[in-house]
Design a protein that fits this description.
By secondary structure, the chain is mostly helical. It is built from 11 helices and no strands.
Amino acid sequence: MIVDNPDPWFLRMPPNTFGIAFGLSGLALLWTAVHSLLAGVAPIMIATFLLAAAVWLLLTVAYLLKAVRRPRAVWADMTHTIQAPFLSLLPISGLVLGSVVHQWLPTMGFWWVTVSALVTLGYGGWLTGQWIVAPLNEDDLHPGYFLPTVAGGLVGCSALHVVGLTSAAYMAFGIGIICWLVIGSVLLYRLFLRPPLAAALVPLLAIEVAPPAVAGNAWFALHEGRGDPVQLGLAAYALFMSIVQLRLLPEYLRLRFMPSFWAFAFSYTSVAVYAGRWLVRQNPPGAAVMAWSLVLGVSALVVWISARTVMDMRRGVYFPAPR
């Protein structure tokens, strides 16, 4: 059934729509991370990057149009206890894309990453202050609260190092790690001891596996791929949280498709990038086969989520009706 909505889609676009750009950006980063192990994948790597960049640009322009047409709606997004963290995915996706484009166009990549890092820092700081001064119900907390500061800091660390801003990269790493320790403990308390998440938020549990993987990617960037005790500890926790995801699989399989499924895309691509960088570093026997299995499996997941998203958009049911 096709649903007709009176408003254009960009006026009904919630902040979590930027999860699409982040998921596709993560997929582009995955192909880039393992291309040295795989023969003839440069066209796929470039095509994936171009698709991610086009979607990111489209969604950015669309949200700017929403800001011009309905500034109060954007303010409501920024102060919404559920949706506000997802706005950070706009500049965080820019960090990923800028770090990829830097290998082809260094000057463009440098400024893309620099501007994205400043916006990420500004919004993360503002939103943390908002959480301090505004009434916040602990049952509204969800793993998406990792995104503005934890993902922002750790993804920013990798991107800033790629463009040569190593001191800033260490500073971003500090923000990401400290916020992970603070916010992570609060979120686990909420998940352990408070009522279960609403069905629409259950896919966000996939984000719990992302911080150790993104931190490991950042540590690899800062230490040129070396596996030291810090890296081994991050790898162990990433493995531990991956086992947690296996236990959550029955909960995921009960769900119908919804926009929050993009949490699977950007979380699992982060883990896949981390695993791919370990493969590149260790280069064990059969590394190419393992790398192909990794990228094809994650790519299949992202393609399926993308196809379902397009189907729902064409039916007019992907974006919520006007409130």
